Amino acid sequence: MSTFVLLTITGLGLGALYFLIASGLSLIYGLMGVLNFAHGAFLTVGAYALWFTESKLPGMAVLPRFLLGALAASSPAGCSRLSSSSY
Question: For FRET with 30, which of 20, 37, 53, 75 sits at 20 to 30 Å CA-CA?
């Protein structure tokens, strides 16, 4: 039974991730008429940053590790946003 629950939660999370990527691509294509594949690059960089941060914090509890990993995963996109455009 626990395998079924784990696979269900994993499938829902992966489906939500696919939805976010597809809706971002659809929005950019619908507004600009151009496919911008930077979404995939940011997803890859964020996933590697999250994995690297999680692997370097083995003794911490799950929630602080996740929050630090999410912060590390979102920082490359934030730095890119701040450095590439003006307000």
Answer: 75
